[in-house]
Amino acid sequence: xxxxxxxxxxxxxxxxxxxxxxxxxxxxxxxxxxxxxxxxxxxxxxxxxxxxxxxxxxxxxxxxxxxxxxxxxxxxxxxxxxxxxxxxxxxxxxxxxxxxxxxxxxxxxxxxxxxxxxxxxxxxxxxxxxxxxxxxxxxxxxxxxxxxxxxxxxxxxxxxxxxxxxxxxxxxxxxxxxxxxxxxxxxxxxxxxxxxxxxxxxxxxxxxxxxxxxxxxxxxxxxxxxxxxxxxxxxxxxxxxxxxxxxxxxxxxxxxxxxxxxxxxxxxxxxxxxxxxxxxxxxxxxxxxxxxxxxxxxxxxxxxxxxxxxxxxxxxxxxxxxxxxxxxxxxxxxxxxxxxxxxxxxxxxxxxxxxxxxxxxxxxxxxxxxxxxxxxxxxxxxxxxxxxxxxxxxxxx
Length: 397
Ligand SMILES: [Zn+2]
What we know:
Blueprint: E1 2-11, E2 15-24, E3 27-36, H1 49-62, E4 66-68, E5 72-73, H2 74-91, E6 100-101, E7 104-105, E8 113-117, H3 122-131, E9 140-144, H4 155-175, E10 179-184, H5 186-190, H6 198-207, E11 213-219, H7 240-246, E12 253-257, H8 263-271, H9 274-279, H10 306-318, H11 330-349, H12 354-363, H13 375-396
Parallel strand pairs: 1-4, 4-6, 5-7, 8-9, 8-11, 9-10, 11-12
Antiparallel strand pairs: 1-2, 2-3, 3-10
């Protein structure tokens, strides 16, 4: 049984920590969020919504019952118990059903602002840019230390979070939108991988400011045609729409951005959104990326890893790559273009990657996009993949 104490607040020099302690199997732990003092007036210690979502998820993974002291929004309690948990049960039928005890309340918050997270990737720039054509234009940008900088948290991922703030802050100033950054130990508390839990984690941060956000866009990585809820749905992106329906309150609604857009459509949309040409960052930031320059004070694209390459080739296919000379090394691209086109060709033909297929279709609209000289590179990529697959097989024996 997990017993969650009251939500409390502590004012530090320039920031505010909002936290709650909980007892779990005889040990006492704390879940905390740290918000800069500019935004502390929008926090609430009367409402336990953010803590409720995260600690119920913890209880679900540990198969434990849980009780809360601070009340939660009636609509959120309904969404978590009737929509979210039954959904997570479909994904992981082995985990036992849990009991949740919490008082519920309609808090009558009157928020008016519309938020989204800006990670500087294609999906997040698309969420901002496309919102301006809807009745709900983004008014506030956010960056959360939710696990995207390292699944299990810790100081390395916290350092990367702080480094990313620098770049995101510049982009926010260029867009003339306020940026709210929130640190937390959510990753240390949950101690589970990020991919199956990213939407729940990130939305808990948005729920932390109930007096600020009436709407919050979550950028979906896949269009809704890829919706899937079964034990093979390892990436929560497949069922973001279900999570959006679950994590609402009487005064807070989650919107999924890019519900009907393929990746290539998103790249086309952001290409006409000028801030993306200065600040787009799609690079793999993990240690596995050998090309990343870690000495730089800001996060930069390496122009060599697979994420950089597939984005550059998509921009090339759309005829917009020249707009991105500030964020990608276009001289390197020109020198390696045939090799990079070969990679995408291999991914389209052999791996049936949707993104690669869309890119080639887009490029072929005007003329033949992949020249014959790129084919040997596709073959050598195939060979390389085969060799590393065989190596892994031998090593695992
Ligand atoms: Zn890269």
